[in-house]
Amino acid sequence: MLHLLVNAGQAIPPERTNGTVRIRGLASDEGAVRVQVADDGIGMSLATMRRAGTPGFTTRSDGTGMGLRDVREIVARSGGRLRFDARPGEGATFEMHIPEASCIEGVLE
């Protein structure tokens, strides 16, 4: 979750003083916890979206390209999935679907 929030904040250009990052918990009929992180930042091109989450790929000069890869890996290990959508200049939305059983096990361990 932290990686998604940091990425969302970094997607808002520094010259903007009114950027928005939203976190939403969503109902699910699938027995899953759904959490959405959305921003109104610079968005991503289709080419960038195709590479997003690939180890070492980053659009930032000071980035490592490991944050989104880590998110994908953690969500996948929980039996969940990560979906995202973005448009250049319109921001990005990332949504994690995590099975409720994985969330409960993680809390009790």
Structural class: alpha+beta
According to CATH, what is the topology? Heat Shock Protein 90
Estimated radius of gyration? 14 Å
Total discrete domains: 1
Task: Sum up the overall morphology in one term.
Answer: globular
User: What is the overall pLDDT average?
Assistant: 88
Helix content: 25-40%
User: Main sheet, how many strands, which sense, barrel?
Assistant: 4 strands, antiparallel
Cα distance, first to last residue? 19 Å
Name the strands of the widest sheet in spatial order.
Answer: 1-2-4-3
Number of strands: 4
Give start-end ranges of low-pLDDT stretches.
Answer: none
**Architecture, according to CATH?**
2-Layer Sandwich
Range of strand content: 25-35%
Order of helices and strands: HEEHHEEH
The level-1 CATH class: Alpha Beta
Number of continuous helical runs = 4
CATH-assigned homologous superfamily: Histidine kinase-like ATPase, C-terminal domain
Summarize the structure.
This protein is α+β, with helices and mostly antiparallel strands. It contains four helices and four strands.
Structure description:
The protein has four helices and four strands. The protein has a single domain, classed as Histidine kinase-like ATPase, C-terminal domain (Heat Shock Protein 90, 2-Layer Sandwich). It has helices at residues 2-10, 46-51, 67-77, 100-108; strands at 21-26, 32-39, 81-87, 91-99. By secondary structure, it is an alpha+beta fold. It has a four-stranded antiparallel beta sheet. The radius of gyration is 14 Å and the shape is globular. It starts with a helix and ends with a helix. Helices cover 32% and strands 28% of the residues. Strand 1 (21-26) and strand 2 (32-39) form a beta hairpin. The model has no long low-confidence stretch (mean pLDDT 88).
